Every structure is written in C-alpha cells, then in structure tokens.
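Kindly inspect the following:
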Amino acid sequence: MENVEQLSAHERELAELIVETLNLEATAEEIDPCAPLYREGLGLDSIDILEIAMAVSKRYGFQLRSDDSDNVKIFSSLRSLNEHVQRQRTN
C-alpha cells in the first residue's frame, strides 16, 4: 500500500487507532486516506469494521450505529470516516 496523499493530523490519529485496533502489519502512514477500507483497498471485513466502530466510539465518545444508513459512505475510506468522526466527536 503506497500512500498517495499525505494524512492530516486527525487522519493519522485515526489510522493509528485502526492499525492498533486490528494489529495490522501496515503503518498508519501506509494507509491511503482515499482508498476503500472495506474489502478491496485496506481489505477489511465486517468484523474489522465492527472493531473499528467500537474503538472509535470509545476514543471519541459517540456511537457508530450498525443500522446507520450512511455506514457505507462513512466507512468508504479513512478520509470519509475521519470527516464523520470530526463532525460527531465529543472528546
């Protein structure tokens, strides 16, 4: 995974949380902020996404709901997940 774009500070923090939560062999800097998180791209599955949602909820103080109709968009990339987190975060 070659990083095409620079990560913002918030994207890097979130990427580090993902790497740490899932024990990925990639580093935060290797995650392309525009690449898909699910299946192709980072190659995550639904269990990985659930683990990320729980870690994000714990770290940022808001719930990512499994029945949210926007989940496909929210988890489409690190950048879109970060944008959602920044809008919703309470801490």
Notes: The radius of gyration is 12 Å. The mean pLDDT is 91. The chain is about 50% helix and 0% strand.
